[in-house]
Design brief:
Largest sheet: 5 strands, mixed
Radius of gyration: 15 Å
Order of helices and strands: HEEHHHEEHEEE
Strand order of the largest sheet: 3-4-5-6-7
Structural class: alpha+beta
Distance between the termini: 10 Å
Helix content: 10-25%
Strand content: 15-25%
């Protein structure tokens, strides 16, 4: 999901959620703090020289034209991506950690988890530093850090 080229039909627009929820060492960026290179009104201050992890990242909403506007990360409260080993990783906004549990999100995410599991794939949930295996009916906490751009994506 996050490593494929995004559709030309979608741009990030006012969404900058990936600039908050992912660890980007090249930008001295922690997991839950807003990137210091981001001007939330005008965008990335270092856009032309931004790290490769930022250049190459496209969230699931940008990649999947079937996801409606309500799935845009700043609206939904989470970012969908697909870093190894995850088929899909749901990375939550620290200010809205349960955003994915609202509808229409939770029922779709649980369905994707069932489909992933039936195909021998993994779906994950990252809330800050906490990572869980996301199953159709529950979350199973793990002891490893989640992946996003810059740390395994």
């Amino acid at each position: 999901m996050g490593e494929r080229q995004a559709s030309n039909a979608r741009t990030c627009g006012p969404c900058h959620m990936c600039c908050r929820v992912f660890f980007i060492p090249e930008a001295q960026k922690d997991n839950i703090d807003w990137c210091t290179n981001l001007d939330r009104t005008h965008g990335c201050r270092i856009y032309e020289t931004r790290p490769n992890a930022c250049r190459e990242f496209y969230c699931g909403w940008r990649n999947d034209e079937n996801l409606g506007e309500e799935w845009r990360p700043d609206i939904a409260g989470f970012v969908l991506s697909d870093p190894d080993p995850w088929a899909i990783l749901v990375t939550c906004d620290p200010d809205n950690p349960d955003g994915w549990r609202r509808e229409p999100y939770q029922s779709n995410i649980r369905l994707w988890a069932r489909t992933a599991s039936s195909q021998g794939l993994f779906m994950g949930l990252r809330e800050g530093e906490s990572v869980s295996l996301l199953l159709e009916d529950r979350e199973v906490p793990l002891n490893e850090a989640g992946n996003g751009p810059g740390n395994g994506a």
